[in-house]
Each structure stands twice: as structure tokens, then as C-alpha cells.
Design goal:
- Helices cover 35% and strands 21% of the residues.
- With 564 residues, it is an alpha/beta fold.
- The chain folds into three domains: 195 residues, Rossmann fold, CATH 3.40.50.12780; 165 residues, Rossmann fold, CATH 3.40.50; 125 residues, GMP Synthetase, Chain A, domain 3.
- A five-stranded parallel β-sheet has the order 4-3-5-6-7, sandwiched between helices. Strands 12-13-14-15-16 form a five-stranded mixed β-sheet. Strands 2-1-11-10 form a four-stranded mixed β-sheet, with helices on both faces.
- Strand 26, helix 18 and strand 27 form a beta-alpha-beta unit.
- The longest helix is centred in the C-terminal third of the chain and has 18 residues.
- This is AMP-binding protein.
- It holds the Pfam family AMP-binding_C_3.
């Protein structure tokens, strides 16, 4: 029986039992600590998870209880998630770059009885610690050895290493019922309080096995986990898929060691987001300016050597699948990587359908689209062009929010994404904007930001882009700059931006043409409230901050102004 047959119709925890039994001594997780790789076999992970389950049951936790996880990505995150599935507990993953107020809301709204905490930088831990309700059981991860990792001994009530040492391994290997809750994933939320998407084990019988088949993954593959495991995309592509295909997963120690760790691992599947693809490009161009790169890439004999060296320097020399998601990526950036022999496949999904929506297929991608529907995704477009989903991976609803659930899922069981799309004759989906993000200029005509932002993004010097202009005579682009762009003299950069605006405007309808570009003085980070933890721009927040400058640029005739 091949792996696809074994994995079909299995839940993730059933697949874990398979690897625990058949690949006991094979390395599954690799965690760098103080410069050294710590490796954990499937058997090691099983002992950890089973000991932890016994401990949690002994502490009074019951099957169905919600327990949160607050940590950067690490081997312990995955071990803990497996323990929760094994014990029948419901995981509530938390973003570590949210506010303490938001975190407290999620903990209280989800009715979490406890929280696992680990691998946090000191400022992050100190900022979020007040968000943990008093009386909540706190459990610290056990691998922490670096001075940069918090919480320290004594800052939490329990540590997993002590709990496991004091308890015998849980011996049963239960199979969850399809309607048992697996996890509650809270949306990062561009407006209002986060909503908890409830996912049950029935949906997982499809999501992991199908992803494994689409990406042709197996035990010899290698993943590198660094995007938040609190987000469904990383949870699907790395945490869940690894349980189905048996691939090895490595982590990074810190931002300082990220590139070194990635190069060391050379993953065969790699997932990132547009902003980071832009940063990776900037790192290459800092060492090899575009003019020099263009010259070398024109020489047939040299071209392949240069491209191979750059792929290795990026850590992607062995990558078979390279994926981008969470936001649109500029076709020009896709073309830049394609020239290096790196085909970036765009994907599209959401918290509510566990990131199981559309994905480009290797060798068949179409820039500007998010690929074709994944099997059984139940996709269709409404009469208005809204993207709708109905599949086994769809959430059962928002936790304790029946009214919001009814707003999101119609009587036929379709989830209304809020995204507008177009489908071509080959089944490729193009996202054209969001229903709620359409805005009217003072001329009374609607503007869809997403397609225009994609055109603006072809300028390498721009990192984050937000198009706004409700009530103004013309739209305005607010942008942040790459590190490299900040080194360019202002007048030189201003001239280049003005030329770019002129080029973009030639491709737009009259009411869509930009009146100018505002350059933010700093990056938009989750802590500022300008973007979500998954780096989606909170358009209303950006508009509020730059209202005065937007009015100024539209009335002054200037094409480029800097925020002071």
C-alpha cells in the first residue's frame, strides 16, 4: 500500500500514530538552540506528547477543554499541538505580535482553561504577560536554553519537561470523531474583534492528504517553518502536511540566524509572503546591483552558474515547491525570481476554509492569478463576482458568534469570502479586490484598490502599498520603502517615483489615476495597528493616519511627499 492510500481519509493524529510506529527512529523535528541543531525523532515526539497528555489529564483538564499556545515557531509548538490532538483538547493558537488586550479577548472569548508559553523575546513576553487572565494555568516550554528566550524559570506555573518527567506516557491512541473540535483559529482581523473559526476533525481528513498529493510530498522532503503557526497557511503546509507525508521540519532560532538556518536546511518546500519575497530580493540586490545581475544573466554560460549560486544563497537550491500567499504578489517580482529558476506559486485561502482554496500548479502558473481550485474545494462565484466556498474543510462556524456565522455562511452552506474574483476558461482565479474595500472618489465612481496596488508594486523600491482616496478627487498611494530605497538620495528617488506614477497612470481609467504617492516614515508593523499579525494592511487605519497628507497631495499638485 502506498503512502497516498495510507493517508486517505485519515485525521492528522491517526497519521502521527502511523509514523510513531513505522518510523520511530527517523528525525521529524529539528530545532536550533544556541547555534546547535537539536533533533527529535518520531519516537521522541511521541514520548513527549504522551507524557504531556497524562500530565494535563492529571491536572484536571478534560477532553474538549480549550488550551492556548503562545509561542514563536519551534519544535515544542508542534509537539504540543500533537499532544492536544492525542488528548482530545482543543488548541487555540495565538499570535505573539498582537496587543495584550486582543490576546486577553481571545483567551476569554475562547474559554481557554490554560496556556502554553514559550520562545518569546523578552520585550514580547513583558508586553503580552498582562494579557493572560489571573488564575489561568500557565505552562512553559522546556527547550529554552538561550538568554534571548522567555519566559524564564519561575515566570510560569509549570514546565513541560517537569510534567513529562513526573508522568507515565498516555498509552491509548484514540481516533477523534468527525464532529470533535480540532482547533479554534482566530482571524487576525482587519476590523473589530477577532472571530474564532471552529475547525473539526472531519475536515482534516481531506485537507492534509489532498495537500500531500498536490505537492507530491513524501518522507524525503524537508520543510522550514518560520511564518506564524497561529496562521492556517503554515499550519496546513507545514504542521499538518508533515504529519501526512512524514517530511522533516526545521525551525529558525531567531531573525539574526534566519538566513543561516535556511541555507543550512535547503528545504524542498518553502512558503513565504510577498513582503518577505521583496526583502529576500533586496538582500540579493544589496550584494549584486540589478544592472550587474542583468548583465551576467545575458551571458548564456554564466547565467546558469549565477542563478544556481543565488538560489543556494537564498536557501532554495533544493526547493521543488516555492509558495506565496496571504496577499497579492507583483507579477514583476514573480518574473524576477523566475529568471533565477525559482517558480513562485501563488495560493489563496482563508482562516475559514483552513487555507484550502486555490493554488498554482508547478510549471502551469499564470502571473496575476492564484492558480486553480484544490480538489473538493467547492468553489463558485456569485452573480456579483464574490468568491464562495463550500467544502469539508470549511469551519463549522465562528465560536460563540451565531449571528456572524449566519452572515458569513449562507443557507446553502457557502462561505462568502468578501473577495471579488474572475475565473478564466482554464479555471484560473484572479482576485480583483474586496467588496468592502471598494471606495468612491468625489466623482462618485468606484475604485478597486487591489489591481492598482499590483501595478504600483512593480517598483522595487516600494515594500508595503495601500491605495486610498474615499471622497478625494483621485486615489493616493501610501507606501513604505525597502532598506535599499532609503539609501537613495531623495531627489533621485522622487524622480524615479514620478516616472513610475506616470507609467502606471497610462494603464488606468481616468477616475483611477493616482494623484501622487505618500512615503511613510516607518514600516507598518502589527504593533502599530496598521497591519494584522499576518501582515495584511488595515486600510481604515492607514487612511486615518494619512488623511491630512492625502488631502495635501491632492490639492498641492505634488506627486511625491514624505511623511515627517
Amino acid at each position: 500500500m502506498n503512502l497516498a492510500d495510507i493517508a486517505r481519509n485519515k485525521t492528522p493524529i491517526e497519521m502521527f500514530y502511523h509514523w510513531e510506529e513505522t518510523a520511530t527512529d527517523r528525525v521529524y523535528l529539528r530545532q536550533p538552540i544556541d547555534g546547535n541543531w537539536n533533533e527529535y525523532t518520531w519516537g521522541d515526539v511521541g514520548k513527549h506528547a504522551r507524557g504531556l497528555v497524562t500530565a494535563l489529564l492529571g491536572m484536571g483538564f478534560k477532553r474538549g477543554d480549550k488550551i492556548a499556545i503562545l509561542s514563536k515557531n519551534c519544535a515544542e509548538w508542534i509537539k504540543t499541538d500533537i499532544a492536544m490532538q492525542l488528548g482530545g483538547f482543543v488548541s487555540v493558537p495565538l499570535y505573539f505580535d498582537q496587543t495584550p488586550e486582543t490576546m486577553r479577548y481571545v483567551l476569554e472569548h475562547s474559554e481557554s482553561k490554560g496556556i502554553f508559553v514559550g520562545k518569546l523575546d523578552k520585550p514580547v513576553w513583558q508586553r503580552l504577560k498582562p494579557g493572560i487572565p489571573s488564575g489561568m494555568t500557565t505552562i512553559g516550554f522546556d527547550f529554552l536554553g538561550s538568554d534571548g528566550d522567555f519566559p524564564k524559570e519561575g515566570e510560569v506555573q509549570h514546565h513541560t519537561k517537569d510534567l513529562i518527567a513526573q508522568n507515565e506516557p498516555f498509552e491509548d491512541s484514540p481516533v477523534p470523531a468527525d464532529d470533535d473540535i480540532w482547533t479554534i483559529v482566530y482571524t487576525s482581523g482587519t476590523t473589530g474583534n477577532p472571530k474564532g473559526a471552529v475547525h473539526v476533525f472531519g475536515g482534516t481528513r481531506l485537507v492534509g492528504s489532498r495537500a500531500m498529493e498536490i505537492f507530491d510530498l513524501g518522507p524525503d522532503d524537508k520543510g522550514f517553518s518560520f511564518l506564524p503557526l497561529a496562521h492556517v497557511a503554515e499550519r496546513l503546509l507545514l504542521a499538518t502536511t508533515s504529519l501526512y507525508c512524514g517530511m522533516q521540519v526545521s525551525f529558525t532560532q531567531s531573525l539574526d540566524t534566519f538566513q543561516r538556518d535556511l541555507v543550512s536546511v535547503q528545504p524542498t518546500i518553502f512558503f513565504s509572503v510577498p513582503r518577505l519575497w521583496k526583502k529576500f530580493q533586496g538582500g540579493i540586490l544589496e550584494k549584486m546591483p540589478q544592472k550587474k545581475l542583468d548583465l551576467l544573466m545575458k551571458i548564456p554560460f554564466i547565467k546558469n552558474i549565477v542563478a544556481a549560486k543565488l538560489r543556494k544563497a537564498l536557501g532554495l537550491a533544493e526547493a521543488r515547491y516555492v509558495i506565496s500567499g496571504a496577499a497579492p504578489i507583483a507579477p514583476s517580482l514573480l518574473a524576477w525570481y523566475q529568471a533565477l529558476g525559482i517558480e513562485i506559486l501563488e495560493g489563496y485561502g482563508m482562516t475559514e476554509n483552513f487555507a484550502y482554496g486555490f493554488i498554482a500548479r508547478r510549471g502551469k502558473s499564470k502571473p496575476g492569478t492564484v492558480g486553480q481550485a484544490m480538489p473538493d474545494s467547492g468553489f463558485r462565484l456569485s452573480e456579483q463576482g464574490e468568491v464562495l466556498f463550500k467544502s469539508p474543510t470549511l469551519m463549522t462556524g465562528y465560536y460563540r458568534e451565531p449571528e456572524k456565522t449566519a452572515e458569513a455562511i449562507d443557507a446553502e452552506g457557502y462561505y462568502h469570502s468578501g473577495d471579488l474574483g474572475e475565473i478564466d476558461q482554464d479555471g484560473y482565479l484572479r482576485i480583483t479586490g474586496r467588496i468592502k474595500e471598494l471606495f468612491k472618489t468625489e466623482k462618485g465612481e468606484y475604485v478597486a484598490p487591489a489591481p492598482i496596488e499590483a501595478k504600483i508594486a512593480s517598483m522595487k523600491e516600494f515594500e508595503q502599498i495601500c491605495l486610498a482616496g474615499s471622497g478625494l478627487n483621485q486615489p493616493v498611494a501610501i507606501v513604505t520603502l525597502t532598506e535599499q530605497a532609503r539609501q537613495i538620495p531623495k531627489e533621485e528617488l522622487k524622480t524615479a517615483i514620478e516616472s513610475h506614477i506616470e507609467q502606471v497612470n497610462r494603464q488606468l481609467l481616468n477616475h483611477e489615476k493616482l494623484c501622487g504617492v505618500i512615503i511613510s516614515k516607518d514600516d507598518w508593523l502589527p504593533e502599530s495597528g496598521m497591519v494584522t499579525p499576518t501582515l495584511k494592511i488595515k486600510r481604515s487605519k492607514v487612511e486615518d493616519r494619512y488623511t491630512q497628507l492625502m488631502e495635501q497631495i491632492c490639492n498641492s499638485g505634488d506627486k511625491v511627499i514624505w511623511e515627517r
